Amino acid sequence: MFEARSHPYLVPYDGSFRYAEAPTKPPSDAPDKGACKRRLRKQVGELDGLQKVLYARDRYAVLIVFQAMDAAGKDSTIRAVLTGVNPSGCQVFSFKKPSAEEIDHDFLWRTARCLPERGRIGIFNRSYYEEALIVRVHPEFLKYQKLPYKPDLTTIWQERYESIADHERHLARNGTIILKFWLNVSREEQGNRFLSRLREPKKHWKFSEDDVKERQSWDDYMEAYEGALAATSRPWAPWYAIPADDKPFMRLAVSEIIVENLKSLNLKYPKVSEALQENFKKMGRLLEEE
Fold this sequence. Notes:
- Helices cover about 45% and strands about 10% of the residues.
- By secondary structure, the protein is of the alpha/beta class.
- The protein has a single domain, classed as P-loop containing nucleotide triphosphate hydrolases (Rossmann fold, 3-Layer(aba) Sandwich).
- The protein has a five-stranded parallel beta sheet, sandwiched between helices.
- The chain is globular, with a radius of gyration of 21 Å.
- It starts with about 30 loop residues before the first helix and ends with a helix.
């Protein structure tokens, strides 16, 4: 079973993660903006090559999960990292408020039906973790979930962590490579980005009053993220807490982690049997004789 490569931003597997200790800014020796962009282009090229081999082998699927506070840069990171990958080998799903159909199933159902096939990379922009993040901050949402019992707020989040961990272990056992990224933006930087959306007309469409309202629950969200990451970071389904105050650095860090982990699979293009090679030669001769 896949095991993640070690990395400075890897969330520990022992439950010791504390959000207050996770940096939101790049290290002092981080490359500058221009260098980050140049290195990102190289990583995107490598990812494209790795995806082609992944598709040809048709044995593994890759699931990449992004979670973050609003304005952390999920959309732009997905776009920047996957810009060079063949669209036929990649799929992106964004999960927002559950539909009536989704509410009629367990909380893992709506994402399970969107999981990537073998040979493909699947991106979840938000995910099943919302059920232990936004719902934990707003437990009043539970009353709409048609649960068969009255939820106990002292135990339900641990129960959901266990369900998620079991789900991810099952996926990993069956060939899904899971990489999860928390884009860790500071409250100050989030506020600056919201102000930018208000001041620039071309960004007005991004602004929502609800985003500002949710800032009032910042500490509750940080507690929810800490609990979820500490409980569900595992060698086969690791979390990475990525500093998100500097977008070029954040995108580079995400791309490097994805590329490094896919390289660790040491995938090769399938070998063709001797019999098939002989058949190829016959087909080649027929084509040449046309």
